Structures are given as C-alpha cells and as structure tokens.
Structure prediction request, 413 residues.
Amino acid sequence: MKFTSLLKAATTVAFASVLVACGNSSSSSSSVPEVEFFSQKPEMQATLQEIVDDYNKSQDEVKVKLTSVPDAGTVLKTRIANGEAPDVINVYPQNADFKGWAADGQFVDLTDESDILDNLYDGAAEAYAVDSKIYNVPLTTNVSGVYYNKDAFAELGIEVPKSLAEFQDIVKKIKDDGQTPFAEALGDPWTVNGFAQLAWIQSAGGAQAANDYLRFSDKGAIAEDEVSKNVAAYLDLLAGNGQSNSDGALYADTVAVFAEGKALMMPNGSWALAVIRQQEPDFEVGFFPMPGLTADDPVMTVGAADLAVSISADSKNVDASKDFVKYLSSPEVMQKYYDVDGSPTSVKGVDTEGKFGELADVAALAFTDQQAIWLHAEWTSEETFWDANVSYIKNQDLAAYIDALNTFFDTMK
Prediction:
C-alpha cells in the first residue's frame, strides 16, 4: 500500500459477487468455526498463507481462510456496504473510510483486549484510536525519507543533514563535484509526496500544525508567509537537481538511476528498498529522515500502518477472530512476516538487529512521536497535492503553488 490506487468498479462488482458467499463465515461442514482473513497485501500473500496454515495446524478449534483478491480496497468497500464484511480485515486505520466505519460501529472495540495490545509497543494502537477507542491493531508501518549513497557521501566528506541549511550545503557540494544530487521521478508525482509532506510538517512545526494550516484553516488562508516559504526552500532542493530525464521519469526509472550510482540521493519510502536491492547496487545504501529547519528541531518521518487488522462487528465468530489476531500479533509470527517484508513493526520481541539495516535510521522513528501519520488521512483526496508539488519543483512559482493548494483544500473547508 503506498498511495491511493486507481480502482476499477467493474472488478469490484465481479469480486464482490464471488465473495458474498464468504460473508462472516460461521462454520465449515465439520462445524469448526471458519474465520475469513481479508488481506490487502498481495506482495505478502505467500507469507500470510504460511502464517494462516501454521495457525490452522496449531489447533483444531478454528479454521482461518485467507482471502487475497485484485482491487482489494474496492472489494472491501463493497462488501462492507453490502453487510458482508470479512471477519478479520487488513484495513488502513489512517484512512478516512476506516474512521467512518469505526464511528459507524463496523468494527469490534478492542480497547480492553490486553492479550492482543500488550504485544505492541505503547501507543502504537492508540495513535489510530477513534473517539478514544481502539478498533485496529497496527502490526507494521511504512516510513518515508531520503535514500543515499553512503560510499559517495564518505568520499565527499558529507554527513547526513541535521538541518535545512546542512541539506542545502550537501546538495551544493554534490553539484560542485559534478554529480547529480537526486534521482527524481516527476512523471510519477506520488513519489514526491513523502518529501513534500515532510517539508510541510517541518515548516509548520508538526503534523497537526501542518494540517491546521492546510486543511483546517479558512478558505484561501494559505499564503506567501514564513511557513510556505520554508516549504518552498525544501522543495527547491529538488528543483533542477535531478537526473536529465527527471521531468518525465517514472518510479522504476528513478530507482534504477539511484541504484546505478548516477544520483546520490532519492526521496522515497521504505517500500522502495526491495526494488533497490533487486538492482544490486555496488555501494552501501543508507536512508535518512527529514531534517528540521534547525539542528535543534527533531528529524521526522511520515508514514502509517501497513499490515493492520480489525475485526468485523458483524462477525459470527468474534472470539475466534480475536484468538487469530492474538496469534498474528505474537512476536514469533511477526518475526516470520518481518523477515520477508522488513517494514518497521510495532510488535515487541521481533528481532530486527542487523536486518534491513539500510532502513535503520528512519525505521527507529516508527511508532514514536517522530513519525507523523500521512497528512492526507485528514483529506478527501491527495492527487492534486502531488501535482501541485511537482509543478512547483519544475517551475518554482510560489504564487502558483499557493493558488493550487488553496483551490485544492478549499473544496474540503
């Protein structure tokens, strides 16, 4: 899951009709309760199936069935709307639809389920509470930052930036050496989203302050002021500092440019590491969080829950579903998942030492107050924001950027 998908309504209807029979499974032919586990992680289907199989073999009182379908997000919305919600649901608690469903009573209240929540680091589930109640168990998260070529940084005597000014100096030093600072994919605007959101978070003084400025201010309130000028200064780091084809480059292109050593940095998220590794770069890869305006400000990352599960309030097997979620949130089970996925996990006791070391400096911020939840969790859409950022990076027209943002956010006010 990284960003909003372009989903097909026709596929929705087809899969919804096929899956209606699954419903909230009550029992199999042998009267053993059957729990449906609905996943939105197709890239992890094989590992999740292993986990389900292990659970089924470990006891004979419940049978769990994994459901993984194309266009899972749309299928899930249709099934919930039709009253056919799966029992255990991989759903994203940062999203507006989840919050609406939770407020509408679609999920089981897990606030007092200490057998499950005690497996997580303090505050991990509470971060996604709705009306002070916990309806979701976030097991992993994604994080956003800047990948960098550690070998090249060392050769140039460059250290990871601790402030905006240091970041600016790094870009200048790389350019003065005749090298390209950033691998950029401006043809895929979503790839700049994490960098841009972090620019707003650092410039405004936090995630809530950023959304208070952008989303919850009066209509037309975004202006050429200190906050927006600081955001522009962060975005200016990317302006004219990408590879020669950056304006039209796509995600795969920018990963290749970075992995081949043709650019020394690449803004992106933890999900990109697997693709970088596939390219087999001949240098050591690092990943740093976004520095603040000054060295005294905390570095930040942005992201949100990835493998996160809720239980349908309409399930005929709530207790059995809770038992499976307890199993899924155990350190032994999440170890199996983490060893393949590598995303930061909220589960205590998972051994991450020496694994996915490239992500370590940013992953360490996950599930702390230095990880902001995606700002668009409070928005009705996000694509126009992506486009506005790319347009500014290409043209550096702050007035036009502000106009575009006011037009976008005014529709939500």
About this structure: The two ends are 27 Å apart (CA to CA).
